[in-house]
Amino acid sequence: MSGNSIGKLFTVTSFGESHGLAIGCIVDGCPPGLEISAADLQPDLDRRKPGQSRYTTQRREDDEVKILSGIFEGKTTGAAIGMIIENKDQKSKDYSKIKDLFRPSHADYTYHQKYGERDYRGGGRSSARETAMRVAAGGIAKKYLQERLGVEIYGYVSQLGPIVAERFVQSEIEQNPFFFPDPDKIAELETYMQALTKEGNSIGAQVTVVAKQVPVGLGEPVFDRLDADLAHALMGINAVKGVEIGAGFDSVSQKGTEHRDEMTPEGFLSNNSGGILGGISSGQSIVANLALKPTSSLRIPGQSINTAGESVEVVTTGRHDPCVGIRAVPIAEAMLAITLMDHYLRNRGQNGDVDSGLVSVGPER
Amino acid sequence: MSGNSIGKLFTVTSFGESHGLAIGCIVDGCPPGLEISAADLQPDLDRRKPGQSRYTTQRREDDEVKILSGIFEGKTTGAAIGMIIENKDQKSKDYSKIKDLFRPSHADYTYHQKYGERDYRGGGRSSARETAMRVAAGGIAKKYLQERLGVEIYGYVSQLGPIVAERFVQSEIEQNPFFFPDPDKIAELETYMQALTKEGNSIGAQVTVVAKQVPVGLGEPVFDRLDADLAHALMGINAVKGVEIGAGFDSVSQKGTEHRDEMTPEGFLSNNSGGILGGISSGQSIVANLALKPTSSLRIPGQSINTAGESVEVVTTGRHDPCVGIRAVPIAEAMLAITLMDHYLRNRGQNGDVDSGLVSVGPER
Amino acid sequence: MSGNSIGKLFTVTSFGESHGLAIGCIVDGCPPGLEISAADLQPDLDRRKPGQSRYTTQRREDDEVKILSGIFEGKTTGAAIGMIIENKDQKSKDYSKIKDLFRPSHADYTYHQKYGERDYRGGGRSSARETAMRVAAGGIAKKYLQERLGVEIYGYVSQLGPIVAERFVQSEIEQNPFFFPDPDKIAELETYMQALTKEGNSIGAQVTVVAKQVPVGLGEPVFDRLDADLAHALMGINAVKGVEIGAGFDSVSQKGTEHRDEMTPEGFLSNNSGGILGGISSGQSIVANLALKPTSSLRIPGQSINTAGESVEVVTTGRHDPCVGIRAVPIAEAMLAITLMDHYLRNRGQNGDVDSGLVSVGPER
Amino acid sequence: MSGNSIGKLFTVTSFGESHGLAIGCIVDGCPPGLEISAADLQPDLDRRKPGQSRYTTQRREDDEVKILSGIFEGKTTGAAIGMIIENKDQKSKDYSKIKDLFRPSHADYTYHQKYGERDYRGGGRSSARETAMRVAAGGIAKKYLQERLGVEIYGYVSQLGPIVAERFVQSEIEQNPFFFPDPDKIAELETYMQALTKEGNSIGAQVTVVAKQVPVGLGEPVFDRLDADLAHALMGINAVKGVEIGAGFDSVSQKGTEHRDEMTPEGFLSNNSGGILGGISSGQSIVANLALKPTSSLRIPGQSINTAGESVEVVTTGRHDPCVGIRAVPIAEAMLAITLMDHYLRNRGQNGDVDSGLVSVGPER
């Protein structure tokens, strides 16, 4: 029943259900001297927030984060940063219909089996609302990485159901409600999503996250590899069923001559490795893809059982995202930032002992 | 420079390079009373061992494991289990050719940049030899899980380059040098691999691992999810570039009605979730796929740089696996076993507090 | 800058300064099904609260704890429990006098050197106010241990400056403002403390904590011993300079025949070991003493330096405890409870594998 | 059953019983570039080794350490360092007498209750032999701290039974078999120990360890304080029943004016804090005392029970230390070094963010 923490030197611990008084987190390990305020964290929280467009859930959550500690005169002090977001509207609607049954492909069943007790209102701890705190915590990491190291982190939806991004226009990403980088496909996406909503169904998505200008040397060989820790952080996001780095599953059918990233004095000639070699950042861009399953809260009835083990039909009537993958973009960015920040802090102490005598190389994929 | 441990209550810590005196590990947290001997661990070590067939590297490693502690009168005592495998033939061949240059897509470059010092003989800590200790440690977990809980773990190559397994015959897996479950494709694989070896090239592969009869309730919500920890364990295997659970990347284009695993009193009707819901085991079979990249040690020359930053041509002359994915099968099984064992130990204490009042359901995918 | 967490399976992470918006903590790992409410935690918070008597600081802190998550219908769900105590009166008095100087024997100097930035208001993270959250978290552990296992935890001041408790009357402890178990010494203590306050000086104290009815088998050999973890938990309380278990420093001059706790079928004949043998609980009462230094906030001037490295005279004018040891009693009880709870959760999973075939023995020291 | 690791970034994991094939450890996190060989570690191992004098056990252990990994061309590479010491003479004597009974004040009873299984030969995991690996691991930390930071670590017996060191002559410590710093008391110690041995009894001792020239800023506020971690490391040594830092238990009867360490531009005027303020090193010498109990292996019979719960008389016939405190000196030094090394690695990354603008001050106690 533990396990609500991530990171070794930059540690984020979260709490909260969607129907309690508040959700919150503690960010432990942020170095002193970073200028930070709630206003820095709000834009990413707003990107994650439901109700932003027709294509995400219409529930209104007022995701206003409060920083309770760890900041003095506008800067971090090195002390633990406590943050909360109050649940303004936590008065429960009527949950009596779902209280005693298990929605298919939902944490309902496993929570019930594991804990006996279950806060069925809004999914309890499995609620997507929990991810708001990840975004807040990740915002601190993002700001540090950008200001101190020049690391740029961004994410986007690279595929939504059958619709694949074929062009990449970075400036387009924030211009449409899908975080989609291909301006030619926006109309198609809108049509697709309207049909899906009407049908009462949901759809999966692929999210891509990228970190540019990452220092060489982050990650530890063997178990605490950067790619392993990144897989942990990303697979731990609600609804994620797959993670790949660089060429990922395409590697399966690649030959060595095709996959290997040749090097020249001017830099790498490709980035199939996705910026990580032997578990350690190479200085190239870190590139990861996430597969997000379609949500299981559907208006189309499905078979299930209740807590008495009897057969029931389940149908979800509330407001739900037809594609949870869209809102996962800022969450995935946050988890990437948290992972890099942790490894940066683990690594930077090492520099005093090391002089590789070599300037880093590293172009872009 | 730390990070050589995995697991919270069942903790494996490893050490060793291919050219030192020995490699070894400590398995900390195995419960007392398990009958175990080196003979129990040897079969999986032999499955991983190079030189077993034409299609894996011809280096002869005599992977004979010695258990140094933690066993008394044939049974575990609850004390830490120390194990080593001596490097019989650690006298170095001439490494002067690769000492000062970086093989493309290899840990050479990142180790050099991170540590300054580098044991270039056999890849040092990035050597596949390190994985022998994972297999030994995993063997203990496997035996415990099987004997005490009836968990069955197995793995296989589900795709090798362009060749996909279309039939699944479990008994076939150990009958061919590719751990391939489709008896109709063995001849094709042999032809393919011979051509590849002749060419001096390498190829990627996809490995699938399965755990049957897993107890319900393993894994913690939020960060220490079973799927997240499994992703960490599997992505941390050398050459792995992607991990997916259940439907994985197929989820991206699935609709909710297609993806959701409906339930009946007799059990689940499908297993797109791969046995994990909300980060917690559901009692269904856990199914994970791994993408393994083609090795970068090729007889076909490639561009690179040396430690002075100058352009060089690199060619590998030694014996190397044309497909490292094949030998990854027992390693992936071991990492799955270690992860399940750790979560089993974290979970089993919880049962005293919980009575879900429901018998588990759970058929097979 | 990390390090705000304690415990492996029952993990408490805290945040907050005395002059921020709130202090708080996350209790991660409490099993489901425990009835708990803020009202259960308030009595110990009140025992710790300053301003309770003439002999502790007269600052009024309204230590009202709010539970924000992890409780549903009055019971724990197994989810992380977030708690906060708002700082009602965090408007700073004038700190300009101490802003640039270091109080002798205070964390001022080391915080300044370590972090550069320092929240000088009320000591920032070194404030005794932080310990309120430990008491709240410990309250949950205490309740679990008592209800489920019958463990009884209590503490008292066994020595205050030169005044040593010579009689032990448990019912007396909560009847006087010193948590002192010897009713014959209360008048003497009052006289002593009045003189001390008048003088503007402070005094050290020894606190004793006891846990009765502890199950046999808690603690791990070698590093994670119960006594080692207890020493960690207790030495981590503000102002503690020494920790001893059982006979403690008296062991130095004991002979083996004097120290050893002989056993009979009816139980142990003594408890020099303080309930822990080989790092593992024996079933006897766990007994630990803590040495608390006198606070360094004095009305008697002392020499120090300022942040420019110049000589200054320091004098504290505010309200401060003449004996911080008194209020440490509930904190020490909390840390003992947290440590036992963590080891209980680590251990209880082990029982399925073990049948010692022996009933526990264990009388009282 | 886990818990055989210590340290977060400099992590030591140990294994081994006195009657297995070997004992060993893994040192994970040593920075690259440190020159180290077995010869560097042997002197401290020899100081710990039994059979060195009449006053420690006469068992001959040939504590020759082998480094198996992590060193290349005489220097650390940053990889995990595996080390073993073979048990040359592990053939068991006849243990049938103690197999089924519990020695009073020994781990026999708690191991039996916790694990069911017990390696009764030589105490299994509770054997003092385990501490040899701590000394080896600590030797690496000691060398790093000394070479890179100029930290000097030493220890001595400050009290043995009733005999207290009244003079401190550092050069005397290694000149007598008691690690005793007072040359005037050596004759008295010899007489005392001879009488004790003749009597078949044992005696407690107090060990003091000191670290000079420790950098300012090691340790984290709240839970991972340097003093708390040091208490954990030292209390985890076999037979230790108490730990104090600086003035320790003397603080109990000190007034604030007496205890506080005043500061001048030239440095601190006293060191009651033992070099740690608010959990963070102050730059003064770190000074800790340990109380070691008398061993419970005595030639004088005592009452106990057997595994059937029946009353028995226990007497130890083998060779045993009359004062285990003596050999604890190098072990305590090692644990101090390991703790400082871990906090040094956790801290040094922080320097880039911090400029306190103040030169450290710090004289000697």
TrEMBL record, chains A, B, C, D:
It is an enzyme of class 4 (lyase). Reduced FMN (FMNH(2)). Keywords: Amino-acid biosynthesis, Aromatic amino acid biosynthesis, FAD, Flavoprotein, FMN, Lyase, NADP. NADP(+) binds at residues 48, 54. Residues 41-60 are annotated as: Disordered. Its EC number is 4.2.3.5. InterPro entries: Chorismate_synth, Chorismate_synth_AroC_sf, Chorismate_synthase_CS. It catalyses: 5-O-(1-carboxyvinyl)-3-phosphoshikimate = chorismate + phosphate. HAMAP family: Chorismate_synth (MF_00300). Homotetramer. This is Chorismate synthase. The gene is aroC.
